[in-house]
Amino acid sequence: MTTRRTLLATSLALPALARGAAAQGQWPERVVRVIVPWPPGGSTDVMARILSEQLSQKLRQNFVVENRPGAGGNIGHDAIAKATPDGYTQGPITVGGWSINQYLYSRLPYDPDRDITPVSMHWELPNILVVSAQHNPTQSFAEFLTWAKAQRNGVSYGSPGVGTTGHLSGSMFCNRMGIDGQHVPFRGAAQIIPALLSGDLTFALDNLASYVPVIAEGRLRAFVISGAERWPTLPNIPVMREVGVEDFVVTSWCAWAVPNGVPQPIINRVNTAMKEVTDSPEQQQRFLRAGARTVWATPEDTLARARRERSMWQELVRISGARLE
Fold first, then answer.
1. Minimal CA–CA distance to 197: which of 218, 181, 180?
2. Could you give the 3-state DSSP secondary structure of residue 251?
């Protein structure tokens, strides 16, 4: 005979069972919103759209991009962190959101360890040092270094904003090389490149993806890359250690994320789909053409990398003197 207690226990268990069933087999039943914390057209936006297209195909549901830029990505990061943890809000969070901004800003609206959960690494790319081919007289890294040190009034370097990897790597470069460098923040490469081409800006050590087309045109000259190895589409450009600069491996990277509390089966499903994208030679080449290397990792390894790099970025923030409210 069914008791009242048994009926009550069964009724209380039904929502949990339904959520579990949805997580295991029915998800996604509707459109998945992909929040991109950066403006349209930038590296993060382009890579997120490529991946969203692939996830739509593999998971048989639309992944629709919504750009939420501002505050160094923090507006979009917070939107992901505060979303309902049902798997229907996801998005790319760059190294800034995982490992830099907590040292740069006096207060964050979200906690990267408590409020967001990584699904997988997404992409990675190095920074590249570029100058104007028309306005800079140097032809090699060694010449540039000698020339920059000799400038009586110093030199200027641009970045997509205070605390970005372009700013922090440029600051570290000037500090290490003994260059009198003045940081000039811009809103993105779309503003940095014209400033370089006009001769108003000396150099940039910024995300490679944005500069490849202008380098190919010959209007910008590239001297060195901040990655551990040469870039496949720019095989003639050396890395820092090859030009005598040791211990200077700085890369920008991005990890796909969901709000904390999303059921593990959903995370596993997206992670598996992302691995299929990463394993595809066609998609690998597509990402390379866009200027980045697609990267896969387990959620655990992704979080471990974010935590491992924090001490390095904290030191770079200190060297730069950057601080934001």
1. 218
2. strand
Which residues of the chain form CATH 3.40.190.150? 29-124+252-320
Other beta carbons within 10 Å of 154: 13
Q: Which residue has the tokens 């949805």?
A: 22
Q: Where in the chain is the domain with CATH 3.40.190.10?
A: 126-243
Those residues with Cβ within 8 angstroms of residue 286's Cβ, 6 or more apart along the chain or in another chain:
50
* Cα 258 to Cα 63: distance, rounded to the nearest angstrom: 13
The neighbour count for residue 221, using CB atoms within 10 Å, is: 19
Task: Encode pLDDT of 60-119 as tens digits.
Answer: 999 999 999 988 899 999 999 999 999 999 999 999 999 999 999 999 999 999 999 999
Name the residue type at position 322. A
For residue 72, the one-letter residue type is G
C-alpha angle 259/71/319, rounded to 5°? 105
Alpha-helical regions (H) of 153-211 = 165-177, 189-198
Contact 75, 64 (CB under 8 A): no
Gap between the Cα atoms of 236 and 222, Å rounded: 10
Report the Cα–Cα distance between both ends of the chain, in Å, rounded: 64
Q: What is the pLDDT of residues 260-304, one digit of tens each?
A: 999 999 999 999 999 999 999 999 999 998 889 999 999 999 999
For the question of whether the overall pTM of this predicted structure is more than 0.90, the answer is: no
Rounded to whole angstroms, the maximal C-alpha distance in the chain is 93
Tell me the one-letter amino acid at 231: W
Strand 251-259 relative to strand 116-132, pairing? antiparallel
The residues pairing with 92 across neighbouring beta strands, listed in sequence order, are 256
Tokens of 219: 């209007």
Residue from 72, 64, 69, 70 nearest 95 by CA: 72
We find that the CATH architecture of domain 29-124+252-320 is 3-Layer(aba) Sandwich (3.40)
Length of the chain: 325
For the domain made up of 126-243, the CATH class stated in words is alpha beta
Residue 42: name the closest of 148, 165, 147, 176 by CA. 165
Q: What whole-number distance in Å separates Cα of residue 91 and Cα of residue 270? A: 12
